[in-house]
Amino acid sequence: MRPNVYITGLGAVSPAGWGMECLRSALHSGIPLPEVVFPRPGHRSQLKARLVPEQNAPAELTRHPRLRRASVLSLYAAAAALEAAGGTTAASADRGRLGVIACLQAGCVHYSCRFLEELLADPTTASPLIFPETVFGAPASHVAALLEASVRAETLVGDSASFLQGVAMGANWLVQGLVDRCLVVGAEECNTFLAEAFWPFEHGAILSNGAGALCLSNTPASPQSVALVRVTDPHPYVTPVTRASALRNLRTQLLGSPAATILYDGLTGGGRLDLPERQAWTDWAGPRISVKRVLGEGLMAAAAWQCVAACDDLAHGRHQQAWVSLAGSNQHALGAVFERMETP
Amino acid sequence: MLFPPPPTQRAVPRIVVTGAGIVTALGRGWTANAEGFRLGRRAFRKVTLFDVRRQQATLAAELDLPTDPLPGRLNPRRAARLDRPTQMLLWASAEAWEQSGWTPPTPVSIVVGTTAAGMSLGEDYYRQLLTAPDRRRGQPTRALYYLAQTEVRTVAEALGASGSITVLSNACASGASAIGHAWHMLRNGSAQRVLAGGHDALSQFVFVGFDALRALSPTLCRPFDATRDGLTMGEGAGMLALETLEHAEARRATILGELIGYGTTVDRHHLTQPHPRGDAALGSMRLACAAAGVSPAEVDYLNAHGTGTRLNDESESWAIERWAGNQVQHLSVSSTKASVGHLLGGAGAVEAVVCLMALKGQWLPPQAGLETPDPACRFALVREPRSASLRIALSNSFGFGGVNATLIFRRWR
Which residue from A53, B101, B108, B286 could staple onto B161, CB 3.0 to 4.6 Å apart? Predict the structure, then answer.
């Protein structure tokens, strides 16, 4: 019998705004969000991004002593986690047996750039306040402090498909009884530096920032619950396996799952990086949602939005079963199956 | 399938180490490092990789990369692109792999802990972007190889490992966390062979960061010394070849030791400071002992996190004392960071290899440079090289941000 792991909470910070409601309405409209252009003197091509609106961070976060000086990355992660956990009161009811898994690809780019700038100017005056925030583990640490989680925390680093490694890790912690609930958060920041670094790999990419979070539990939140049915094997892009063949293998593995009624893919509408995923799903006849077309290439945050959007649609009864396809940029491809369930 | 896990096995398998690889400033490989750690040698020198003239600290355990051709099957062009941390990781991984005697077709998964990954490449990228924004030569390679997953994927390709790739970044606990994660993967049946450990190389970004925090020693690190004044950085990698006992015995592998316990907790006290009484550290040791089914009295040697900072060593001393109870005075403890510095993401993995060396060689790793033991430390600090009868060794790793991890190894006869 399959172990029961339910998605009992969702959270999102995205270019659509802070909170699930903003994400939901942006995806339902299906209209790509407005872009900003990063200055790039001397270049004809532009670096574009879709960015989280600067206002409206929940006061509960900005007042918290651990988050007052935290990076934007940690703020996004904390906001999404807080929403998915149902607030600090709900989280403290776990008496610390809440697990936290933060998944990052680029990590804290703003403060890292600022620290590098200080270092190059005068290494003796580099800020001791900024450096700790640049560490990959900082968002998980802040989320654990905010939600009083003391039992287990991990930071997974990798390409965007690693988000599902995080989901599987959290689900397995639940099965092993190591935690009572587990938050899995994917978060990213974005700036000119990151957009410039990404540009050679996908000229037309529109990067974005934000976070998405799932709260996993052994017990359903309501009679109509969303369950995690499976997370596929990781399909690493290790020679001779190419990104294209890894995605085909992922597709084949998902075909062994119960039929989905909707696909949440990772297509951005761009060219080079999209191609293998587009080819792998070329014969998909059902409905599909490509969250990145609306929100942008948010790397790990986008992977989280794909899962969050899938679970949200299932929770609202719009579909019965969803497949999520995550085609990471340079590590591996993973997929997942979520299902709407009636529980006694 | 990552989830659901494979059907529950009749009995949880025992996990053994069949290979270990190590690269530190003491040298490359098991033999050179075992000799260095056994004698308590120190491997510090003035940093040459970047300019430290304006920093408070100028010393680190900087290593000389081997000049031999890199192991594995990378073509020369690709091998020439590898940065220092990837080379260290590859040397350690290849040694562990070779020692294990693993051969295809069973897939090998890799779990690696790191804090900084290819940070020096990130620095170079940023410098070039600022000084010559139109000059793109080398920039895509820097952007790509800066990523931790590229480092690990490169190692997988060099060695022919076709299993999953996982990168954990729990600051200074990363290496131990990676080994702990591999332990779980093997126990729940989601992998049969895992290469796990950690690595980090010196970079100016991290060096200046710790200097800015006043965490670096202006002299040299002296963990648990009353006059300690900070940590000294190091670099290197440690990797373990892990598999189930059943799998190892079936292929008549040489077993170096058994990984019997792993515990992890979160210290919420502060982003960069541990709980003063070591609450989370204590929890981590207790969880590992519970998993291993051993009591503190059965632990013969404890390889401490022991960074040499006031706050860490005080907190860890409390935790060890509370954990060991009335056995504390009989407990042999040392911090091998006194020999090779603090390897950040590599620390927990290298220290795991040191525990295996001690168990296999039946000696206690002495702590170099200890002059005036802090009277607050009630355990028996190992000050001189000596032989000992060791059955069980415990290794602590505590990370910036609060992730604590403890590994317990048992001697294999």
Answer: B108
